[in-house]
Structures are given as C-alpha cells and as structure tokens.
C-alpha cells in the first residue's frame, strides 16, 4: 500500500508525449497563457512553436499606459527612464508590467498589429518594437532628407505645382512635437521586403512611407490647407485621408490623386478611421443631450460606416454584431472581430478616458494628475458605463503622451 502523497501519485508532466503537448498548445487562445505554457519546462517549450502563426486568434487589446511607474516626475524632463511600462489586459482584467529597455529615451507614438512605433526626440531615430517577442525593425530617421515619391514630371502631368524639398524634422522638436505621429500602418508582414510602412503626421498634414532598409522616408503627400484633417488609413495600397465633411483618396501606385468626395455624414464632432480586412470604416462621435428622469444628460452617439467607392459613399452599419471598437488618445482607434472572442460584447466600444480626482480630498491623496480609466458602451445607445477605473496616474508632462490600445501578437 502506497502512502498518501507518495511520488507515484504525482504525474511527471514533463514526460507527456510531445505530440499530446503540441495538440494542447494549439488549443490555447490567450497569448499570456501560451507564454506560461512554454515556460513550464524544456520539453513543453520544444514541442510548441516560439511564434505560432495560425492557431492563436486575434488577441483582445491591452491598454498601454505611457511613462514608467517608477519614474520621479517631480523634475521634468526625466533624465532616466528604466523602460518599465504598464499594460492593462482586458482578457484577464489585470495590469501587466513589462520591462522594455528599448523604450528608454524614446517616444511611443502609435501602434499597429502588435508593434509599437518609437521615435527619439528630434526624429533622430525611429524603429518598430514588438513588446512580446522583443523583435525590432529599424526605420529611417526623420533627420535624413526626404525622397519625393512623385518626380517633378509626374506632378506636372497631374497639373500639380512644383513641390519644393521638404524637411520633416521640425515636426519632432522637443516638447512641441514629441508625439508628432498618430498613425502607423504596414501593407503586409514586416519580413516581406516589399512591405510598405506608412506614418501620418497631422502637424504637417503629411503621409510618409518607406520599406525596411530604406535610407530615408518618401513623401506621399502634404496638405497645407487641412485644418480639418482628422485621420489616415491605408487599404489595398491606397491612402484614405479623413477630413471634417470629406474623404480624400490617394493611389500612389498609379501616381494619381483620385480626388476628394464630400460626405455629409462626416460633420460630427469628431471622427476616426478603422482599417479592417474587409475595408475602411469611419466612426463618427457626436455629443448630444437627452432628457432622462427630468434632467438633461449628455452622452456620445457613435455611428459606424463602411466607405464604398464607385460610387463614393458611406454605408451605415446597422448590424454591429461582428465589430468592437477600441478608442484611445489622439483618436487612436482600432477594431476587432467580435466573434474571435466569446466573452467580447459585440457591437460595443471600449474607450480609454482620463478622469480628474472629483474632490479636494482625493486630489490631495492622488495628486493633481488625471487617472486612466476604461469605459464601455453599446454602439446603439452610446451610454457609457465604467469598466475599470483608476488604472494608473497620468504623467504630469506636456505634451501629454498618448495611451495606446495595443493588440499583442507574436507576428
């Protein structure tokens, strides 16, 4: 008779058949669970792929909080950044702390497909970083003279006046232009030598692009009369430039500007673009007041449209059951397919928002800075409810660094 708790009662999980380990690894849905799985032991790590490409679904976004929680903000600019960043994981409803020394001294401007765009003050260095794998893709600095995408003869054929040489480095001056980029997109996988990386600089209303390994950025377009410029997205090689009341489309592959279409739906208080596999979507945000219980209550009305060409128009999405929107600082928005996650409430919007301490007593304890929170609403009614409050304190710096929705990925 064996005694209770004897070694024979405990399974040696490290000696499971590797084929069974591989099958189990392919059933995991969460990227954090997959990392834990591979950390169990060497056999499990060897039986699973370091960068799974197919069986992990699109992940629920994390909210990246700017600035290290360990920094002393009493003397700005902070001389030392330890590279620690906080991410709020919606899937597990918990804060994650990642040590990313690559972020030290860099400004995190935007995110796309699991990559963060980092730019040094003054635009002297730029690169993409995957915080999960720590892979890094170097990009040209913005201090290098730009290349014109269209040569002078092409511009003349299009009836466009000669464009002088342009230098974008002024957009990245300290304090004023630390976060000059609000959008980054890529046309494919970064390992593809033909992959185009594009960035949007609303400060000069310009779009720039490059390939990995290029010595400089190429200027796609600059608009000097664009005070109503809201956002940019790229789809099937074309650039979609969103204005208040209009959309402009540029096709650099055919060296043509397809013109500007006037869209009456784009006259709301604010708008942003969402780039999906099925096309380009526009989210409009309108502040309204409604009577509720005899009192006027202010709320935001969200409407979702898909942009259609030939003829150009916006088709209102009446069934949002397959789309969930994540809305963050500087109109940084992204969308995910709701059916990828059973727990995700379809037809909804998750909004990062900063709340100031409501009372003098709380301000005394918490300080004068705002606190990051996440609110949730159904797109059909726009009534926001708090999902998680007081995630972290906003760094007391200017210009305010954006809090970014970041979709973790191994790719």
TrEMBL record:
Which segments constitute the KIB1-4 beta-propeller domain? 87-352
* Entry-linked InterPro entries: F-box_BR-signaling, KIB1-4_b-propeller
Organism superkingdom: Eukaryota
Family annotation (PANTHER family): OS06G0707300 PROTEIN, OS07G0183000 PROTEIN-RELATED
Q: What is this protein called?
A: F-box family protein
């Amino acid at each position: 008779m064996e005694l209770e708790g004897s070694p024979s009662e405990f399974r040696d999980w490290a000696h499971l058949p590797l084929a069974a380990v591989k099958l189990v690894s392919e059933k995991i849905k969460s990227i954090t669970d997959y990392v834990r799985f591979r950390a169990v032991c060497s056999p499990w790590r060897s039986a699973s792929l370091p960068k799974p490409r197919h069986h992990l679904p699109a992940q629920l976004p994390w909210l990246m909080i700017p600035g290290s929680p360990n920094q002393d903000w009493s003397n700005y600019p902070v001389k030392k950044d330890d590279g620690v960043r906080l991410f709020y994981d919606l899937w597990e409803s918990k804060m994650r702390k990642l040590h990313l020394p690559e972020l030290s001294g860099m400004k995190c401007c935007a995110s796309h497909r699991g990559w963060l765009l980092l730019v040094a003050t003054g635009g002297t260095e730029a690169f993409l970083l995957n915080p999960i794998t720590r892979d890094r893709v170097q990009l040209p600095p913005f201090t290098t003279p730009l290349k014109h995408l269209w040569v002078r003869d092409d511009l003349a054929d299009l009836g466009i006046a000669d464009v002088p040489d342009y230098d974008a480095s002024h957009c990245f001056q300290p304090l004023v232009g630390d976060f000059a980029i609000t959008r980054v997109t890529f046309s494919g996988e970064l390992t593809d030598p033909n992959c185009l990386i594009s960035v949007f600089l609303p400060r000069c209303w310009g779009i720039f692009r490059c390939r990995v390994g290029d010595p400089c950025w190429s200027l796609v377009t600059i608009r000097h009369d664009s005070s109503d410029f809201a956002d940019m997205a790229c789809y099937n090689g074309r650039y979609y430039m969103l204005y208040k009341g209009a959309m402009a489309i540029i096709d650099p592959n055919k060296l043509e500007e397809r013109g500007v279409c006037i869209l009456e739906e784009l006259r709301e208080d604010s708008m942003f673009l969402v780039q999906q596999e099925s096309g380009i979507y526009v989210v409009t945000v309108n502040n309204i007041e409604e009577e509720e219980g005899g009192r006027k209550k202010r709320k935001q009305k969200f409407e979702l449209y898909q942009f259609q060409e030939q003829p150009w128009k916006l088709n209102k999405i009446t069934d949002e059951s397959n789309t969930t929107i994540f809305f963050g600082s500087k109109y940084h928005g992204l969308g995910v397919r709701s059916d990828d996650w059973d727990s995700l409430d379809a037809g909804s919007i998750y909004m990062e928002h900063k709340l100031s301490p409501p009372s003098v007593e709380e301000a005394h304890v918490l300080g004068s800075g705002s606190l990051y929170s996440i609110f949730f609403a159904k797109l059909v009614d726009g009534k926001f409810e708090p999902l998680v409050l007081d995630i972290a304190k906003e760094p007391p710096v200017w210009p305010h660094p954006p809090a970014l929705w970041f979709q973790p990925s191994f790719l």
